[in-house]
Hints:
Layout: H1 2-5, E1 13-19, H2 25-36, E2 41-43, E3 51-59, H3 66-70, E4 74-82, E5 84-86, E6 95-97, H4 106-113, E7 118-122, E8 131-132, E9 135-136, H5 137-142, E10 152-164, E11 168-175, H6 181-191, E12 196-206, H7 217-224, H8 228-232, E13 247-250, H9 252-259, E14 264-265, E15 271-277, E16 282-290, E17 293-299
Amino acid sequence: MSGRKRHFRKLNGILLLDKALGVSSNKALQDARYLFQAEKAGHTGSLDPLASGMLPVCFGEATKVSGFLLDSDKSYITEAHLGFNSSTGDAEGQKVAVAEVPLLNAEILDQILKPFRGSIQQIPPMYSALKKDGQPLYKWARQGIDVERAARSVHIHTLRLVDFSVDRLLLEVCCSKGTYIRSLVEDIGAALACGAYVSMLRRTVVSPFQGQRMYTLAALHALAEQGQEALDAVLLPVDAALPHLAALHLQEAQVLKIRQGQRLNVSAAEGIVRLYENHTQQFIGLGECQAGVLRAKRLLAYY
């Protein structure tokens, strides 16, 4: 084992992994880590095995900014299968017929979907990683125990009907962190009085990576055949996760002081800012500015 670990390297960057169906987020993460031979890696929000799509993987010092991605908005394409409820809210669970699906048209569906746009209250599903008395809800669910869950406020920025058939709805959803698409689909099924569960789910965007290319593990293996340089070229820089934060460029002497834990008097926006070394333009980490005084918040170690 120790001989194998010597091949791992201090790699920094963000991989936009296109997670495959049937694979856990942790398995996908570990597969990517071993392929890149990265010493340290973490993902930024799990996708269920039955979901596919964007899973940002943070290597090395990028793990220090992963919290911003956990808190960011997400976009999905999902298919709702009408007429049934599922014990898990998705295709994996036991199905129970609820009622005949009513005759649908675009106007009816628009009226049904309208109350689910904007800020809504949502009860998390039992099959989730949220904890009750120190135990994940899904463990209670597997014991047949239904635990009371408090409704939580989430925001649905976009809920668009892409297509529909007799018993299927294809929906595009852009939502805030903490939104459960399974709960959203179940609530839409309840509004239609016929039940519904998620039969397909694909995450298309984790903000701020709109329009960015994702890579499947198969595509990454093909790049690895061309050499490490070709593989590393797909990585985004650490600060690609932080475009919403103001940037502050520091002189070399200021960088030295901030790395030593000293505070600086600066003219900068209040709050958390991205810090760069002015001469090299290297991202050195995050600082926090209050009343004109800058202190280190989270500095990178590998640069």
